[in-house]
Amino acid sequence: MRSPYFTTEHNTFRERVRRFISQEVLPFADDWEYNRCIPKEIWQKMGQMGFLGINYPKAYGGSEMDFFFSVVFLEEIGRAGYGGFRAAVSVHEYMATYYIAHAGSDELKRKYLSPAIAGEKLGALGITERNAGSDINQIQTSAVHDGDNYIVNGAKTFITSGTTADFVTLAVRTTPSKAMSKRGATGISLLVVDTDSEGLSTKKLDNKIGWHCSDTAELYFKNVRVPAENLVGRFNCGFYYIMQCFQLERLTAGIVALGEIDHCLEVTRRYIAQRKAFSSPLTNFQALRHRIADLVTDVEAARQLIYHTAWLYQQGELPIAECSMAKLKVTELANRVVNECLQFHGGYGYLEEYPIARMYRDIRVGTIAGGTSEIMREIIAQITIDEVRHDSRT
Ligand SMILES: Cc1cc2nc3c(=O)[nH]c(=O)nc-3n(C[C@H](O)[C@H](O)[C@H](O)COP(=O)(O)OP(=O)(O)OC[C@H]3O[C@@H](n4cnc5c(N)ncnc54)[C@H](O)[C@@H]3O)c2cc1C
Fold first, then answer.
1. Which of 31, 242, 324, 362 is the most exposed, fewest CB within 10 Å of its CB?
2. Does the residue 69 lie in any domain?
3. Domain harbouring 248, CATH code
4. Annotated catalytic, 249?
C-alpha cells in the first residue's frame, strides 16, 4: 500500500537491507537456528553497512537518519522470518545501546556506543529477574558504591544475547526499596557491565520453544566490580530511563511484528497458489480467500497505527498510549495471522521444514517479551480511563 511516510531514499534503503538479508542472512540462518547461535561476523557486516546506528549521532559513528529508516530496517529484519535474529538485532540497536545514547556520558558513548554501532561489540539489556518481570520495581540485583566502583550482586533472567554479548546495560537497585518514598525515585540505576568481568557467569536457556538462533540466558553477578563511571545517567533515576526507553522498545516490537506478518502472508500466498485440492488451487476457495481478505484488511489498519506512532515519535513526542497500542495490536494480530496461515498449509504447516512452522513458534513470544499484552492494556486503560499523564520525551 502506498504511504506518505516513505521517500525515494527510504525505498532505496529498503532495497539495500533486503539485498543484505538475502545474501548474508537467509543462506545461513537455518544453521544459526540449528547451532543455537548467531555468529559474531554478522554484526561486523551489519556495522559496515551502517545498519546498527541508523538514528545515532554521526559523532559516534551513527548515520543520524530519520526514524522511518529504522521503520524500514525493522520491518525488513522482521520479514526475514527468523524471530531469533530480529530479536538479537533489535535488542542490540534499540535497547541495550539506546540507554547509553540517550543518557550516557560522552566517555560511555565512546567506549560502548561507537563499537556497538560498528558491530565490534554486542550489547544485551538486563532488566528481568526471576521475581521481577512485569513489575520491574521489584528488582533485587544490587549495586553498592565502593570507592571508584559499584559492587554488583544478584541475577537476571531471559536476557537476549546473554552469553554472547560483550556488555550488558543492567538495571540494579542502588537504594533499598523500603528506603524510597512511594512516589519518589525508585532506587534503581543503570550500569554498563562488561560481560568478561570477574564474578559474572551465565547459563544459556536452551529449552525455548522458538527464537532458536537467539541466545537467551541467565546472568549471575557475584561481587562484580563495575567502574563508577559506567553509571548511565543519574544515580537512582534508572526507572525513569527504563520507562522512557520502553516506549521505543514497544514500538520496535510492533514494527518487527509487522514485518513478520508480511512474511507469513507472502509465504502463505505462494503456498496456496501452488497447492491443489479438488483439482483446484487453494486460492480459488472462497472460504480461504475471505479469511485472507479479512487478515490483510486488519494488517493494513494495524500498519497505519504503527506508522502514525512512528511519526509521533519522530516529532519528538513520547506517545506512550500509542506505543502500547502498537505493540498490543500488532503482536496479537501476528499470532492470529500465523495461526490462520499455518491452517492454510494443512498438515505441511506442522512440519519443521516449512517456514510457517518456525514462524508459528517464533511469533508466539511477541505478546510476552518486552511487556505483555496484559500490561499494554493496563497502560492504555490508565491513560484513557484514569487520565494518567506522562512527561514528554523532550
Ligand atoms: C525469549 C525472551 C526474551 C527476553 N529478552 C529479554 C531481555 O533481553 N532483557 C530483559 O530484561 N528481559 C527479557 N525478557 C523478559 C520479558 O520482558 C518478560 O518475560 C516479560 O516482561 C514478562 O515478565 P514475566 O515473564 O516475569 O511474567 P510475569 O510478570 O510473571 O507475568 C505472568 C502473567 O501475569 C500477567 N500479569 C502480570 N502483572 C499483571 C497485571 N498488573 N495485570 C494483569 N496481568 C498481569 C502477565 O501479563 C502474564 O500473563 C525476555 C523474555 C523472553 C521470553
1. 31
2. yes
3. 1.20.140.10
4. yes
**Is 392 inside any structural domain?**
no
Judge if 227 and 262 occupy the same domain. no
Cα(43) to ligand 1 centroid in Å equals 27
CB 176 within 8 A of CB 121: no
DSSP string, 181-193: -SSS--SEEEEEE
Pocket test for ligand 1, best of 158, 170, 190, 211 (most atoms within 8 A of CB): 158
Task: Supply the residue whose CA is at minimum distance from atom 24 of ligand 1.
Answer: 133
**pLDDT, one tens digit for every residue, the chain (394 residues):** 678 999 999 999 999 999 999 999 999 999 999 999 999 999 999 999 999 999 999 999 999 999 999 999 999 999 999 999 999 999 999 999 999 999 999 999 999 999 999 999 999 999 999 999 999 999 999 999 999 999 999 999 999 999 999 999 999 999 876 666 554 457 999 999 999 999 999 999 999 999 999 999 999 999 999 999 999 999 999 999 999 999 999 999 999 999 999 999 999 999 999 999 999 999 999 999 999 999 999 999 999 999 999 999 999 999 999 999 999 999 999 999 999 999 999 999 999 999 999 999 999 999 999 999 999 999 999 999 999 887 655 3
Residue from 33, 129, 218, 249 carrying the catalytic annotation: 249
Count of domains observed in the chain: 3
CA of 290 relative to ligand 1 center, distance in Å: 35
d(CA 76, CA 69): 11
Contact 38, 217 (CB under 8 A): no
Shared-domain flag, residues 117 and 128: no
Radius of gyration of the chain (CA): 21
Last residue of a domain, one of 122, 138, 163: 122
CA-to-CA distance for 309 and 318, rounded, in angstroms? 9
Residue pair 356/268 in contact (Cβ under 8 Å)? The answer is: yes
